[in-house]
Design brief:
mainly alpha; two-stranded antiparallel ribbon
């Protein structure tokens, strides 16, 4: 007691002065701190919040309780949004590649139909027996470099017509994809891909997921800038409707948060049609007409009313070793990008991080999907769509069933071509405005993984900084050094070798995986907790976390009939 009184009346000597307050105390005095959250809790429907199939069969049955609000009737519109978002990249790839191959507008329409058909099939397979995440499998731009090699080879040969050159190119693409698909099948079902992901940590996942969004910046404002008078109003209107106007009324909040995307597309698309018919683009450059006019795709006039894609529709596949090896690089890149997208999808759908065995089987199934794409004559292979994952965060709807329903739209509009061509005629700057927001959401979701590691570690800051910068800088060098005909900076006498390296190092996410994994596993950490390994390790095993079975198990007890190594 005497010591206490003495402490109050006489200040302590300097040598025994109390240490300054610790940073945590200062932080607490300034406001609350947020504990790490493995699952987002602001989602209205998470990965397994599914409506019953009874409601799906009767979507207009409004005899529902107030809380459910007959979710499945809304699920149809939500699923249609996924179809629309996926359609943009599909049309973009076909519009850029098919004319270079000598294809006509009718060929472009058929290519889009096949791409949508395979996208629907592969999405349904992945959500059922693959990753089980609400991810749409869309056309991958990683395959464009091998396609340029095929196009260049056939430009030097004589054909009876440009259409014959197009068909010959498609047959070569078929053969290359069929052979290359076995790489993903072996890596996936051989579990090699899952073993690779065991070297990941939150420090690696952050730059990979961030660059999935940031690396696609060319699909954002640069594409929007091709027609500012359409793209910019779409961008501004979507932000105002989805984020500000929803506060007007509780019912407006529900409608605009979920369906503002469709509403804004309808308004701006109608505005673009008015500009087109009023003659606003009659005396502009051809490039402006192509970007702004609603009648420049020529899909409505060239698409067939009904056309069911079937195997070998372009003819017998052509197998060339040089083109097959080039396609192998694209298969690796699509697998790497899908892996990062799966982590983002898990985050934005309320699921835990996908374990190694789930990533293995999803990549193996992606290889089987690529085999089907080669058989059916698809222009490119598929990968997990980054834009559609961003849509999960935009609408706060992470339901797996919504994505499964969207496959019905993809398959329906791929068969009934005229109906699909109507929506495919949406000007690309409108899609670019949408991607400005969706890709940003995916990039931001990657940043949230840093909460599971020590963000104050200088070692982690180094790994993150170098991985992010090189993940942006190296692909940018490879892209800017590419010639008009698709030749990258690696130019040896072996064209197949050039294609592999140019394709791999043109992918932001792939470079981030390579750099981040090497640095994170070779630089010594002061504590294993700094890397987030204690949080990460349980998700690397099928029994490591009790929620893994809940989110990633096969439906309908399929696992009882499969070998344990595939589970």
């Amino acid at each position: 007691m005497g010591e206490t009184e003495n402490h109050h009346h006489h200040p302590p000597p300097p040598q025994v002065a109390a240490p300054p307050a610790a940073p945590p105390s200062l932080a607490l005095s300034r406001g609350p701190t947020w504990t790490p959250a493995e699952q987002l809790h602001q989602l209205q429907y998470c990965i397994h919040s599914n409506p019953s199939w009874r409601q799906f069969l009767f979507p207009f049955c409004w005899l529902c309780d107030k809380n459910s609000t007959c979710f499945t009737a809304q699920a149809l519109l939500l699923a249609f949004q996924h179809y629309i978002v996926n359609l943009g990249t599909t049309v973009l790839i076909a519009s850029n590649i098919v004319p270079l191959m000598g294809g006509t507008h009718g060929d472009k329409a058929r290519v889009i139909q096949v791409l949508l058909f395979m996208s629907g099939i592969n999405t349904l397979l992945q959500t059922l027996i693959g990753s089980r995440l609400p991810t749409v499998m869309g056309a991958s731009i990683a395959y464009t470099l091998p396609l340029f090699s095929i196009i260049n080879d056939y430009n030097d040969e004589d054909f009876a017509s440009p259409h014959d050159r197009f068909v010959h190119s498609m047959r070569t693409i078929q053969g290359s994809m069929i052979v290359s698909s076995f790489l993903n099948i072996i890596l996936g079902y051989g579990r090699a891909w899952g073993e690779l992901t065991r070297f990941f940590s939150p420090i690696v996942v952050v730059p990979v997921v961030c660059l999935l969004g940031l690396g696609l910046f060319a699909r954002g404002f640069p594409l929007l800038g091709n027609c500012v008078e359409i793209g910019l109003p779409m961008l501004i209107l979507l932000m105002i409707c989805q984020q500000y106007l929803k506060r007007i009324h509780s019912r407006a909040h529900l409608i605009l948060e979920r369906f503002a995307l469709l509403l804004c597309i309808g308004i701006v698309w109608a505005f673009a049609a008015i500009l087109t018919v009023s003659g606003a683009y009659n005396n502009v450059k051809p490039a402006t007409k192509q970007s702004c006019r609603t009648d420049r795709s020529f899909l409505m006039s060239s698409a067939p009313w009904i056309k069911i894609p079937y195997p070998f529709q372009w003819g017998t596949p052509i197998f060339r070793a040089s083109h097959v090896f080039g396609m192998l690089g694209a298969a690796l890149v699509s697998s790497a990008e899908s892996t990062g997208t799966f982590f983002a999808a898990a985050r934005l759908s309320g699921a835990t991080a996908p374990p190694a065995h789930v990533l293995s089987r999803s990549i193996g199934l992606q290889g089987i999907g690529m085999l089907f794409e080669g058989l059916f004559g698809s222009l490119v292979g598929t990968t997990a769509s980054v834009e559609n994952v961003g849509l999960l965060g935009l609408t706060h709807i992470g339901s797996r069933r919504v994505v499964q329903i969207s496959t019905a739209f993809m398959i329906f509009f791929s068969i009934f071509g005229k109906f699909g061509a109507f929506f495919a005629s949406i000007p690309l700057p409108i899609f670019a405005a949408i991607y400005c927001i969706l890709l940003g959401i995916v990039a931001a979701s990657g940043i949230t993984f840093i909460q599971f590691a020590n963000s104050n570690s200088m070692r982690n800051i180094y790994v993150l900084g170098v991985s992010l910068f090189l993940g942006l800088s190296i692909p940018q060098y490879f892209v800017t050094s590419r010639t008009f005909d698709g030749h990258g900076p690696v130019r040896t006498n072996a064209v197949w070798f050039n294609d592999i390296l140019n394709t791999i190092f043109s992918s932001h996410a792939t470079v981030a995986i390579i750099v981040g994994t090497l640095l994170d596993n070779t630089l010594e950490a002061n504590h294993v907790e700094d890397r987030g390994i204690p949080w990460w390790k349980p998700f690397q095993h099928s029994k490591g976390d009790v929620r893994t079975e809940e989110f990633y198990s096969y439906p309908l007890r399929i696992n009882e009939y499969l070998p344990s190594r595939f589970l």
